[in-house]
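ok trying again, last paste got cut off:
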Amino acid sequence: MPGIVNISEAASIAIHAMVLIAANPGRILPAGEIASFFGLSSTHLAKVMQRLVKAGLAVSTRGPAGGFKLGRPSRNIALLEIYETIEGPLLDGGCLLGREKCLGSRCILGDMIKKVNKEARQTLTDRTLADLTASFLSRAPRTSPTEGLVMGHPAT
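nice, full thing came through this time. structure:
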């Protein structure tokens, strides 16, 4: 989807996977279930999850009953932390042409890039996994909370 803000596929996978994990507290979610739920490549998901585990945002368990759970409570994980774990530091701005110095007397776009990036940083800092999970669950059709269903997909 085109737009000014562009989040990489890896960062999107990280945020989506972490929200799904947070939406299933008390469960260890297998990588295959996460990948299947979102229609993702298991290989790409594994690489993303490995980085989240290394950063302490998720915990992995090996073996037949293995999978992932959150490394700490969802209310204590800001989206910026997930984003920066995958992408590196979110910079305040920079030349869209990749130049160190603008060829004009000032940037053609003025301070717009800096302003948009600052607002994106603030939004990612202010929102936590708990915030997204509440929104995700409020939209998810569930037949019964005891059946472990999230958005109509059975828990394994």
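cool. The chain is about 45% helix and 5% strand. The first strand starts at residue 58 and ends at 61.
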